[in-house]
């Protein structure tokens, strides 16, 4: 299986979790990693032909990012807007992503229990991630269970270090299934 990991962090050099994940995933055979901030530059401009060619070569796409204001950083939105175009990703002739898989790898600052009805963030991670699921549906991709590391800003090195092999296992698993509940997939702290 060929995997493309698109990392969307405003400044990967200052990141704790996302930088560690990016570096580890970059060393795995069969995985292509791209730092979207480095690729798109300050203007967040992407060459659709280059990005689309990469998408066509892979079976699975992983969107890796810190959870910012209940969504992704702007560089990922810019990439989605400029690359997943009518006629390529959707529309009558937009069939290039059909049958591919989409996985999210997300770090949050808050604890898992804060992402529940009645808690600090009011909604579950699944509810917050619905737009990404709809993007997968619109493009004919299979939306697979996300990998979520909660409390990533706590600087808990034991938890952070444990998240690396868990993330690699998650994004490379051939057994991911949206209907199958992964142990602790949304409750890593």
TrEMBL record:
Keywords (alphabetical) are: Oxidoreductase
Q: Which residues form the Flavodoxin-like fold domain?
A: 1-159
**Superkingdom classification of source:** Bacteria
The answer to whether the entry has keyword Cell membrane is no
Q: Which GO terms describe its molecular function?
A: electron transfer activity; FMN binding; NAD(P)H dehydrogenase (quinone) activity
**Entry-linked Pfam families:** Flavodoxin_2
Q: Which InterPro entries match?
A: Flavodoxin_fold (IPR003680), Flavoprotein-like_sf (IPR029039), KefG/KefF (IPR046980)
Identify the PANTHER family for this entry: GLUTATHIONE-REGULATED POTASSIUM-EFFLUX SYSTEM ANCILLARY PROTEIN KEFG
Q: What name does this protein carry?
A: NAD(P)H oxidoreductase-like protein
Please report the organism this UniProt entry assigns to the protein.
Answer: Shewanella sediminis (strain HAW-EB3)
């Amino acid at each position: 299986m060929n995997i493309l990991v698109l990392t969307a962090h405003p400044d990967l050099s200052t990141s704790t979790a996302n930088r560690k994940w990016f570096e580890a995933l970059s060393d795995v055979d069969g995985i292509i990693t791209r730092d979207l901030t480095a690729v798109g530059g300050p203007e967040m401009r992407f060459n659709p032909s280059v990005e689309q060619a990469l998408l066509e070569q892979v079976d699975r796409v992983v969107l890796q990012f810190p959870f910012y204001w209940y969504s992704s950083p702007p560089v990922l939105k810019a990439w989605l807007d400029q690359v997943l175009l009518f006629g390529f990703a959707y529309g009558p002739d937009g069939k290039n992503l059909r049958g591919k898989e989409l996985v999210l790898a997300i770090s949050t600052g808050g604890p898992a229990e804060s992402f529940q009805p009645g808690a600090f963030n009011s909604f579950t991670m699944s509810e917050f991630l619905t737009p990404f699921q709809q993007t997968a549906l619109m493009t004919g991709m299979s939306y697979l269970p996300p990998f979520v590391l909660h409390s990533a800003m706590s600087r808990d090195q034991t938890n952070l270090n444990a998240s690396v092999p868990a993330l690699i296992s998650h994004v490379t698993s051939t057994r991911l299934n949206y209907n199958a509940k992964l142990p602790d997939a949304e409750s890593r702290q």
